[in-house]
Amino acid sequence: MLISLDWLKQYVDIKEDIKQLDNTLTMIGQEVEAIEIQGEHLDKVIVGQVVEYGRHPEAEKLSLLKVDIGAETPLQIVCGAPNHKLGDKVVVATIGAVLPGDFKIKRSKIRGVESEGMLCSEVELGLGEDGDGIIILPEDAPVGTEYREYVGLSDAIFELEITPNRPDCLSHIGIAREVAAYYGRKVKYPVYTLNEIIESVNNNHISTKIEDRERCKRFAGRIIKNITVGESPEWLKKRIRSMGLKPINNIVDATNYILFEYNQPLHAYDLEKIEGKQLNVRKAQLGEKIVTLDGVERELNDGELVIADENNVLGIAGIMGGESSKVTEETKTIFLEVAYFTPANIRKTVKKLGLSSDSSYRFERGVDIENIPEVLDRAASLIADLTQGEVLDGIIDKYTEKYEKIEIPLNIKKLRLFMGKEIEFDVVGKILSNLGLEIKTLDQNTLLVTPPSYRGDLYRTEDLYEEVIRMYGFENIEDRMPVDEITPGVKAAGIALVDRAKNILSSIGLQEVINYSFISKEAIKLLGVTEPTMVISNPISEDMSVMRPTLIYSLLSNLRDNLNRNQNNLRFFEVSKTFVPGEDNLAIEDYKVAIALAGRDSKSLWDPKPEALDFFSLKGYVEKFLEYIGISRYQLERSNNTNFHPGRSADIKIGKVVIGTFGEVHPDLAEAMDIKKERAYIAELDLTKMTQYMGNTVKYEKIVKYPEVTRDIAVVLDRDVLVGAMINDIKKSSNFIENVELFDIYQGEKIEDSKKSVAIRVVLRKKDGTLEEKDITTTVEKILEIIGKNYKGEIRQ
What percent of the chain has pLDDT over 90? Predict the structure, then answer.
């Protein structure tokens, strides 16, 4: 937002210099991004007069001039412009001047003739777009005067960064209110006289209708007749140029002037071009077209809000008018519109059409709906003065949803605690009053505050805190560290469990992988998932169209990709959520733990031929994880999961509840996943289910000082006997058994095809004394009895 200092001074007394005002605006929240001093680049640019005129001796198209700039002798200047003559007052850039584009004026020779300066055009001075000829000044222009002084280019233009919640500051009056409130001064609102003729605006001149009452809350207008459209006076041109705009004519310039004065967009229609003499605020019909003021034909097809007459669309509401009803030099009567369109509607239309304007920028943020009659009268008065027009009596005003004032309570004690400052009650009241807020005193500690209609950003007590603090001054609040007790936060139970699981898995030698929560529909088919899944309605790609109900596919993909890159010692884990549909198609999100192995240990000097990772490698990781997570009572049963090898997989059960499955990946699935180099092993455990079975108590026992006794037992069993179940039974058979470990399984020579040889190591220890031989013998006999009776096993001979 650009703010002219000269223009701002019309509305508030400013005694401070530019640097002080810069600091003030920034401190009260209207950050100054840049300041441009107009005419600063016009040093050594002087008003001159052509006192001798002749042709260049070596070039017919160049003229050789003597130009008086008020010095002792005239300057000799070579000029190529065609539009000057003897006696003209001109703008002279003298030697040493630096024009826009870092163009330095030097003494030079042009076709052999010395030139001591340059006669300038608007383009060369950066003041306009006319570059066809040099600037010719009026006859009364004083020779020798600095050009910037002559044209009044002494203004300072502030570029402000206005936050979206303060649209009232997108105007000179808005910034004047801020400055006046900070310095405790009064705002000088525009004073004008509106002379209306006897003829009424309601005398069948035009009718208006708001058909779309949701998106247009107010639509008002006045009629001004017998106008003369022409060039704006110099003071108005200056104001328009200071805002970075090009003056067009007195009607357009006046509406732009009011826009930057009040932050209220306006639009002028040529009344004679409105068919049927009616204006309707309605939704655009599919396929309707309009040529907007930028000369572009636009097709409307999304219900955009438009202003239309009986037959045509005349403008896109709040954004841009149309060519068909624009004001031209032939216009004699105008309908001047001031309206309120809802911000959400304007934002949507701007984005849809890719069309924005100064008007849409303000409507997007919100304008003052209550100030519309004031703006309309001010604009009508200005236009009547500029065009010698006549304002018809009365206004047309359709107001569909009245503005309702709100009252906000403000407790001074709470404000002081918030500020950390003992601010006086009267000081708070004065600050709020200076900001234009109405206040009522409820008691010695409470105010009831009513914001004005242009302060839509104030609707809660905290907003008032901000107003008081920024006007009181941040620099007036001492730096003081708050004193408070800080207590550590507690992790949510689910997050704590996930972190614990990850720490355990990484501590036992596994590497974490993190995958997307999406997989493809083909992956669902590949895994044989028959239960309903969560399908994404607008997936990023087809490969990410389903919320994964299992982690298996993602881990197998990790194994495949790494094996294809010649990585051969793969030990991965992932702890993440899986998703299945629940009630009302909302996702049930359970935490799962997955472990994936493939390959073999890396070669080393002492292990040149490392063995491949196998089922028992995976089983060891699973058992260690269960031990550390606090689950000790479980059993393993052969798994029927079709994604696993039928003879090399197991379900982990607690009672009848399956909490996980692990084993070798089924060869068909491995082939489908293109895992060829090594066998793949995977485990998936339901961490959410496991929670209820976890033991939280850790028991410590002192180290037994008595020696252990080990016995190795090799037995022959049927191939389908589960060794894990047998080991569990052995552990329960005697208090002397400290541990039972499987250390060998053999199938081959001297063992029947339907059998397998299993070797276990039994560790025996007595806690309160040394084991005697009879205790050892009795325990071993019990073990052999269990093996023979329950598992049909025999001692291997």
Answer: 74
Residue 311 lies in a domain: yes
Residues 783, 680, single domain; the answer is: no
pLDDT in tens, 281-290: 999 999 999 9
CATH number of the domain residue 136 falls in: 2.40.50.140
Question: Containing H/E element for 377?
Answer: helix 372-387
Cβ-Cβ contacts under 8 Å for 16 (sequence gap 6 or more): 24
Centroid of chain to Cα 28: 25
Whether residues 235 and 338 fall in one domain: yes
Mean pLDDT, to the nearest integer, of 258-270?
A: 96
Average pLDDT over residues 464-482: 88
pLDDT, position 695: 79
Burial class (CB in 10 A: 0-12, 13-18, 19+), 294: exposed
Mode of pairing for the β-strands spanning 446-450 and 511-512: unpaired
Q: Does 302 lie in the same domain as 213? A: yes
- Please give the model's pTM, rounded to 2 decimal places: 0.62
578 and 678 share one domain: yes
Q: In the structure encoding, which two tokens stand for residue 456, read together?
A: 């839509």
Please report the pLDDT score of residue 696 as a whole number: 66
Residue 232 lies in domain: 196-399
Residues in the chain: 797
Residue 361 is predicted with a pLDDT of: 94
525 and 607 share one domain? yes
What angle (nearest 5°) sits at the alpha carbon of residue 341, between those of residues 340 and 345? 165
Tokens matching residue 547: 């919320």
At residue 415, the pLDDT reads 93
257-266 as b/e, with b when 16 or more CB fall inside 10 Å? Answer: bbbbbbbbbb
Least confidently predicted of 18-22, 479-483, 729-733: 479-483
Residue 785 lies in a domain: yes
Same domain, 208 and 172: no
Total domains in the fold of the chain? 6
Say how far apart CA 204 and CA 597 lie, in whole Å: 88
731 and 596 within one domain: no
* 3, 160 contact by CB (below 8 A): yes
- Give 635's DSSP letter: E
